[in-house]
Amino acid sequence: MLRHPRSSRPALRRAGVLCAVVLALLVAASPTPAGASGAAELDRMPAGVDLASLGWVWPAESFRLSRPFVAPAHEYGPGHRGIDVELLGGSAVRAPADGVVAFAGPVAGRGILTIDHGNGLVTTFEPVQTTLTPGTQVQAAEDVATLALGGHARPGDLHFGVRLEGEYINPLLLLGGVPRAVLLPCCE
């Protein structure tokens, strides 16, 4: 087995400390990221806003929540960055709030629609088909796409993701929680 001489350990320690100092200096000297100050600051969500008070609507008229949001432990960790809803009695997908189409098209074999709602809020739907193009203005509850097949969602399910300032959040925070259950007769 090959061993390093004891005399090299202090040199390795000094090199590690030097690397840490250089890295700290580089981080401190880096320019402020775009949008972190100035006029872009006005377009951010004001602190302390109750997201449920924004008046968002569900992306379908009739649905069943089939898979909940599961926050990852860290940025690259496993999780479910959105909710899946099973569309019942139709395939229309609605805009949850006013916004502008940021992206519409295929990604990895499935149709994606992304809407920028301003104030750092962006929604993504998949798998969908849409005729909308980037830059198109949409209104809350307006039909913006139809459900398609593909992606991780099971057939008949729509994946609905929401990002706030680039971080995925639970869409239920904007929708006021889970809708009230309606009991149906089961047996006669």
Brief sketch in words of this structure:
This protein has 188 residues and is of the alpha+beta class. It is 14% helix and 30% strand. The protein has a domain at 52-175: Glucose Permease (Domain IIA) (Distorted Sandwich), CATH 2.70.70.10.
Structure description:
With 188 residues, the chain is of the alpha+beta class. The protein has a domain at 52-175: Glucose Permease (Domain IIA). 14% of the residues lie in helices and 30% in strands. It contains two helices and eleven strands, in the order αβββββββββββα. The chain has helices at residues 8-29, 172-175; strands spanning 63-67, 83-87, 92-94, 99-107, 110-118, 121-126, 128-129, 137-138, 143-147, 157-164, 167-169. The strands form two sheets. Strands 1, 2, 4, 5, 6, 8, 10 and 11 form an eight-stranded antiparallel sheet that branches. A three-stranded antiparallel sheet has the order 3-9-7, with no helix packed on it. The longest helix is centred in the N-terminal third of the chain and has 22 residues, at 8-29. The N and C termini lie far apart (79 Å). The model is unreliable at 1-8 and 11-42 (pLDDT under 50).
